[in-house]
């Protein structure tokens, strides 16, 4: 799965945050653990790779150009930071309204680690800026673009105070938040659809390659698994996530069948136990 597809899922989560926050069913801690585990593995790969690039750029080899691979890694870090911030905010909103703190610890841990990786990548680019101005400029444009988009979608979160905790610019989020319509009418829905479509078009053509496609897919699956199937109409999912959603729905059905089967086995066992 490409990093831009994770960003698309992040935009969908921001718009549909209420489906996670206001539901009555408890969320799956196992799903949140899956998100954290996959994120940690991806983070370790980022750090290992950035250390390698630091050595390569400190001792340049004319026969080896590390810049294309470095740009790919930094693009993934910046693109997926969008989802990391949005998901952390959404989980905080969920825990706030559900009066619990089961999910946000893992989301916060992932958020902090992601920021550390981002800062390391940015410092590396700044220190070697003179070696490749073109890559630095492209990455810097992407960084600024993603910061603005992140704040815009954070303003869709139904709790401004929580949204601002994960913002790049708190005042910008507050301004966007104040511009929102209070009534979710047809015009509001069309604006949301247009907003997500514009964001998708913005990020989809950034790169055709993915640095960590397997871990990205596991991260997406872990997040989507936190949304029970009865919360919303899946037609609102971004195109890149529909297959994951179908796989999740199949897993949910199989889990229900397994639970019913185990219940029947226990019931039969209890009925055949002789009375003492």
Question: Which terms summarize this structure?
Answer:
276 residues, 11 helices, mainly alpha, 74% helix
Oligomer: single chain
The beta-strand count equals 0
* Class per helix and strand makeup: mainly alpha
Distinct helical segment count: 11
Strand-residue proportion: under 5%
Number of domains: 1
Could you list the spans in which at least 5 consecutive residues all have pLDDT below 50?
A: 252-257
Largest sheet: none
Order of helices and strands: HHHHHHHHHHH
Taking the alpha carbons of the first and last residues, their distance comes to: 58 Å
Mean pLDDT equals 81
Radius of gyration: 21 Å
Give the overall shape.
globular
Helix content: over 70%
């Amino acid at each position: 799965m490409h990093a831009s597809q994770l960003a698309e899922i992040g935009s969908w989560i921001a718009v549909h945050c209420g489906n996670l926050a206001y539901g009555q069913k408890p969320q799956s801690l196992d799903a949140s653990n899956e998100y954290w585990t996959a994120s940690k593995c991806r983070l370790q790969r980022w750090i290992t790779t950035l250390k390698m690039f630091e050595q390569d750029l400190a001792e340049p080899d004319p026969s080896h150009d590390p810049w294309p691979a470095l740009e790919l890694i930094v693009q993934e870090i910046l693109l997926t930071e969008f989802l990391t911030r949005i998901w952390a905010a959404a989980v905080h909103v969920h825990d706030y309204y559900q009066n619990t703190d089961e999910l946000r610890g893992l989301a916060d841990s992932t958020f902090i680690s992601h920021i550390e990786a981002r800062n390391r990548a940015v410092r590396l680019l700044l220190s070697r800026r003179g070696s490749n101005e073109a890559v630095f400029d492209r990455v810097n444009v992407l960084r600024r673009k993603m910061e603005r988009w992140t704040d815009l979608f954070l303003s869709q979160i139904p709790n401004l105070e929580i949204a601002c905790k994960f913002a790049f610019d708190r005042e910008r989020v507050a301004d966007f938040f104040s511009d929102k319509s209070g009534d979710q009418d047809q015009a509001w829905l069309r604006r949301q659809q247009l907003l997500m479509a514009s964001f998708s078009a913005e990020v989809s053509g950034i790169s055709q390659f993915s640095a960590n496609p397997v871990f990205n897919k596991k991260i997406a699956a872990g997040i989507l698994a936190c949304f029970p199937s009865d919360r919303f109409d899946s037609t609102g999912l971004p195109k890149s996530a529909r297959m994951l959603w179908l796989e999740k729905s199949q897993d949910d059905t199989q889990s229900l069948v397994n639970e019913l089967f185990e219940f029947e086995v226990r019931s039969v066992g209890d009925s055949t136990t002789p009375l003492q």
